[in-house]
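Repro case for the chain-ordering regression, as requested:
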Amino acid sequence: MNVEPILGLFRQELTVLNLGLSAFAENLRANGAEAVQLAWKPPAGGGRAMLEALDRIGDQVEGANRRAAGIILAGRPMLVGLGAALDAVPGMTPATVLHPGPPIAWARMGGPLRAAVVAGLLREGLARTGEEAAALASGGVRFAPCHDHQAVAPAAGVITAGTPVWIVADAASGRRAFCPLAPDAGSPAGLARVLDRALRTRGPVDLKALLAQALSMGDDGRDRNRAAASLFIRALAPALAGLDEPGELRAGVLAWLDAGDGFFLRLSMAACKCILDPARGVAGSTVVVAMACNGTEFGIRVAGLGDRWFTGPAPAEDPGDAAVAETAGLGSFCLATSQDALQCTARMRQITAAEDPCWTLFGPDPRGAPTGIDLRKVVETGILPAIGAGAAGPVKPPLSSFREALAAFAENGL
Amino acid sequence: MKQTLVRQDSYFDSVFLMLLGRELRSLPGVAEASAVMATGANLDLLRALGWPGEDLAGAGPDDLVVAVDGADAAALERALEAAQRLLARKRAPAGAPASLAAAAAATPGANLAVISLPAGHAVREARKALEMGLHVLLFTDKVPLADEIALKALSREKGLLMMGPDCGTAIINGKPLCFANAVSRGPVGVVGASGTGIQEVTCLVDRFRSGISQAIGTGARDLKSAGVGGSTTLMAIEALAQDDDTNVIVVVSKPPARDLAARVVEALEAAGKPAVVHFVGLEPEPPRPGSVVCYAGNLEEAAAMAVALAEGRPYQPRVFSLPPAEIEAILERETRGLLPAQRFLRGYYTGGTLADEAWMLLHRRIGAVRALNQADPACVLADPRVSVGHTVVDLGDDRFTASRPHPMIDPGTRTERILAELDDPGIAVALVDVVLGYGSHQDPAGALAPALAALKKAARRRGGHLPVLASITGTPRDFQNLAGQQAALEAAGCVVLPSNHQAAMLAALLLERLERGGGAP
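-- result from build under test --
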C-alpha cells in the first residue's frame, strides 16, 4: 500500500483549498494554516449537458493547449510597412468589404456597421450616393470577416481595396497580419506612403518588445497606449527625419502620430492577430484564437474547431475586432494600475492556459499577462473574458457562444 | 405581505442560507422568511406558499431568492435591507479563485481540498482534487455509495488520503478541520469513522495530558460498508504506522461490516505499534496474548488506554473520575424528591456517536431504550419528533437537518424539542451532550441552559425533581471557554460529568436506583 504522499502531507505545512462552508477556512486561518476559500459556483451554471461535455473533454486537451499557448508565446510580430489592402491583403478584390466580427450579411448589419460599409463603398468610388451604396451592399459586394483575411479592424472600421493597412509579419514564419491605418480629416496627404518609407528605411519594429516596454510603463496595449505611441514615435523619428520628403510633410506625419495615441491600438491589434493566427488549427486544443463582434453578434473561434464561429448576441452595438488584444493577453487581461484591474487580471488567470513571460505587468503583480483563453475554464467557472475597459466598464461577451463551442468541442474536437 | 428579492448569479452555501433565513425571521414584524437557491423545487415551494410567481419568473438555479412575509411595508423593507447587508458581508473577495484548478495554480503548496458542497457537485470536485494530487476531506454526506467506492479506489491508486464522504472531523498536522477541537499535539494517532467519536476521544486524550499526532476521519461508511471495505481506515493505519510522531494508534468506529473488524485488527497487528480499538456499543474483546491491540469498552476508555500506552504504564480501569462516595452523594441527592410517575430517561443529543454510546449503554443496563437507529425494531422511535418511554434522540440525525442546520450549529433544534416535552410527567432524568470546538455554536451551553432550567422547573411545578446530567466534549483552549460552559450548565442545576460515558453511566445508576425504589421522597 502506497502511503508515501500521506507521510509527505504530515511533513508539510497544511495548505487547504476550501470549497463550501467558509467557516472551515476561517478556522484554519485562525490556527495559522493557509486556507484559500474558493468563490465556488455550480460549474457551467449547473447545467448537466455542459458538465458532461467538460468531463468528456477532461484533461485530454492539456498537451494540445500547451502547444497552442507555446505558439502564441513564440510569436514575434514585426511591423514592416504599410500598403493598400488590395495589394497587401490576401484574397482582397476591388468589390470585397472586410468587416469586423463573425460573418454577417448586409440585411442583418446594425446601424454603425452599415454606415461604415456605405462610407467604404463611397470612398472606393463604387457608389456615388448613400442609396446607391446601400443597393450595392445588398447584393453587389462580397462581405467577409477581416479575420478570414489575416486582418483585424477596430470599431466600425471596414477594409476596402484602397484602405491603407499596417503590415505586421512574424519574424520567424513571415506570416502577415493587417489592420487599417485609418487616416482622418487632419492627416497629411501621403501619410501612409511616408510612414511606409520611414519603416522600410529604418527596418522592422519589434512590436512584441515595444509592447513589453509599454506595459512596464503602465499601458495595457489596448485602451492605454500613451507609452507605446511615444516609443513608436521615438523608434521611427530618425528614419522619418532623414527621408527626402518635404519638411512640412515629415513634420505633419510626426504631428499626426503625436496628435493621439489611438493609432497604436491598430498596431497592437495587428500584432495580436499575427501572434494568434498560427495557433488556429492546433488539433485538440480548447484555446480561443479569436473573439470579435460585428455589432449584431459576438463570435469566438477555437484552435481545435477550425474556422467555425460560435456566436451569441452582441453585448454592444459597436462592431470591432479589438478583442483580439484580450485574446492575446493585452487590454484588461494585463492592466495592473488599480486594485480592480489587478483583481480582473487575477480572474483572467483562472481562465487562461499560460502567462506571457515577455509581457509582464506593471505594478505589484510582477507575473506575466495571462494568455491563451481556455474554453473549458470559461465554461466551468462562468468567468467571462473581460473585454475593453471603457467608461461603461468591460464588455461582457455572451456565455452562450462559449457554451456552444464547448458542446461542439466535446462532439468533434477530441 | 409577501415579497421576494432575487439576486442573479449568487451562489451561497445552504448552512449560510438557513442561518440567514433564521436571522430574518427574528426581525420584528417578519412572519416568515427564507433564503434559497432558485432551483425548480424551491421555486415551486415558494409559489405554493403564496409568494407571487411573477416575481420569481426567470430565476434559475444560479440565482438566490430571499422571500419575506412581513406585517407591513416597513417590516419588509427592513428585512430585505438586512438580507442585502448580510449577503454583502458574505460575498467572496473579488479575486477569489472560482475553480480548483485556478486555486491550485494560485496556491503553491496546496495539499488538501476540504469540500462541503451539495452532493452532486462534491463528488466531481473531489475527483478533480484527487486527480490533481490533493488529499481530500469530503464533508458532504448523502453521497451515493458507488461514488464513494470510486473516489476511494482513485485515492488508493494515488496514495492520497480520502477522508469522507460524510467526514465531519479531522486534525491534520495540529490543524482542526471542520468540527474539531483545539487539542494538544502528542503521540496518539486517531482513525475514526465518526465525527463526535473522534472529538470525544481527542478531547479526552488532551484532558489526560497527552496529545494527538493526527486524527484522520474516514467517513461513516468506511467500515460499515463491505463495498468501501475500510479503504481509508486501512490507509490511515498504514500511514500512522510509518509516521515517526505517532506512538499509539486508536481506531474508533461504529460496529464494522462483517470481516472488516478482523481486517482492521490485522492491519494494526502488522503496524506493530501499540493500538486501541473501540467499536461503539460493542463490549470489548479480551486482549489476545502477544497482541499489540487492546480493546476499549467506551470512548473515554479508548482515550485513557491510548494515553497509558503512550506513557508506557499499565492502564487502570475505572468508571468515574470522582471517588465512589461522591458519586453516591450525587445519586442520593439527585434521586430525592422524584415522583412515582417519573420513570423514564430522556437523552437529547447533538453528537451522533455520543447519542449511540449513551443509548447502547443504557439499553444494555436498563433495557428498552428507544432511539432512531435502534437495532431492535421494537425500540425504534416511531415518531422521531416525540420521545416515548426511555428515549435517546440524536437531533443531528438526517431527519432533523433536512431544512435547518445541524444542532451543533443551531441549538434551536434541541431547545425546541426539550421545551415541547416539558410537560411529560414521566421524565425521570435528562441526559445531554455539549460539543465545543471549531464549527460548533459559539455558546452551546448558554443556549441550552434555559431549556434545561425550564425542564427542571416544570418538574418542580408538578411537585417533583428532575436530575439533568451533562457532559462537555471540549478542551480549555476551545474558543467557547470550557470553564464558562460548565458553569452555565451548573448554574442551571445540571450535574456535569467529565465524559459522555460517565454521564450515561450515572444515568444508568440513577435509573437502576429508581427501579429499586430508591427515589422515595
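Ordering looks correct now. Chain B has a mean pLDDT of 92.
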